[in-house]
Design a protein that fits this description.
S-adenosyl-L-methionine-dependent methyltransferases; 7-stranded antiparallel sheet; mainly beta; Jelly Rolls; 1 helix; 8-stranded antiparallel sheet; about 350 residues; elongated
Length: about 350
């Protein structure tokens, strides 16, 4: 058990880095590298992106700089860094933005956009209720001014979009909270405005993305003397710095149980397609549902007849977005020729 837990704590990130199923991973960028991270795609109309730029970092020595130019007649300004996720996802994105348009009658829009959700500045400031506070936009519902007043300097914009709800923040101040359901297809750090707005400069620094934690049950177990052992929906999903726990029930009284933790629900040992029938070894109706790189003995409880499985997750942000799969194997001498049954399986994603 100690070996399995140590493996998860120390090696989970490295093992899953090559997994095709760790599709939406956590990511952070302090913009301190010599070249821009390939996470980003650049686009610039009536302007340009400078990286690295050492003239105005939020932390460290570098940030990314966006410049626009006045072209009238000419195209509207639209300069941005963007990342498109492999699949639309729930999670949180944040970035530090340098606002130097507070109190200015004419400037550029700057902001953070994630799918249908945006936090941004207007391209003017004519007072607290007219461009002088930070704004937010929800596609289909329009744009709104917030209670957070603008000031020149660095500010953190944050969008949290979970299945359960949406929260938009500026410098930790909640400027909107409402229903969820907005998956994020992409994230964009942007500056722009009409072609007649003045040339402008802004900087972005210290970006972070964290996917939402989740746990989804799949497959089915096979029947034993006490019924079909089933992984129960966990009370809380897997998050860094917590102990993730599941219960499997019912199981026969006095049985022994083994937990299988894997990194794929597609292949076992890299070659055997999953799910894989175990009928050929005397377990008809039982299926192998995970790749099972790690196994450990589980704690059984006589009353009620159940099995508990706890995994301490280190408080390591690089685990964000890591996928893992779990299944239990339980002894039951009367169930079949081999005397072993299996549970259903669970797919966990470590997140916020």
């Amino acid at each position: 058990m100690k070996i399995a837990k140590a493996f998860l704590a120390a090696s989970l990130t490295a093992v899953l880095a090559a997994s095709a199923h760790a599709q939406v991973r956590g990511f952070s960028d302090d913009f301190e590298a010599a070249t821009l991270n390939p996470f980003w795609t650049l686009s610039a109309t009536a302007g340009w992106v400078t990286f690295p730029d050492t003239s105005n970092p939020h932390t460290g020595h570098q940030s990314v700089r966006l410049d626009s130019v006045f072209l009238n007649p000419g195209p509207n300004k639209n300069i941005y860094l963007e990342h498109v996720f492999p699949q639309p996802t729930y999670g949180a994105v944040s970035v530090w933005i340098f606002d130097q348009g507070a109190g200015s009658q004419s400037s550029n829009y700057i902001g953070l956009r994630a799918g249908d959700l945006s936090v941004y500045t207007f391209d003017y400031d004519l007072g607290p209720t007219n461009g002088g506070s930070y704004a937010f936009d929800i596609v289909g519902r329009g744009g709104f001014q917030s209670i957070a007043l603008r000031s020149n300097g660095w500010h953190e914009f944050r969008i949290t979009s979970l299945a359960s709800g949406v929260t938009l923040q500026v410098d930790g101040i909640v400027i909107y909270s409402g229903p969820g359901g907005y998956r994020l297809p992409a994230v964009r750090l942007f500056m722009g405005g009409p072609n007649w707005r003045p040339s402008w400069t802004t900087w972005f620094d210290d970006f972070a993305f964290s996917p939402e934690a989740s746990y989804v049950l799949y497959g089915t177990g096979c029947a034993g003397a006490a019924g079909i052992p089933t992984i129960q929906t966990p009370i809380t999903p897997p998050r860094p710095g917590t102990t993730f726990a599941i219960t499997i029930a019912p199981v026969p009284a006095g049985s022994a149980a083994l937990g299988a933790l894997g990194f794929s629900d597609q292949l076992f040992n890299g070659t055997i397609a999953l799910p894989f029938s175990l009928g050929f070894i005397g377990m008809p109706g039982c299926w192998l549902l995970t790749s099972s790189e790690v196994t450990e003995s589980l704690t059984t409880h006589p009353t009620p007849t159940s099995v508990s499985w706890s995994i301490p997750l280190p408080n390591v942000q690089s685990l964000l977005g890591v996928d893992f799969y779990q299944q239990a194997v339980v002894t039951d001498p009367t169930a079949n020729a081999l005397g072993v049954i299996t549970s259903n399986a669970g797919h966990g994603r470590i997140g916020i």
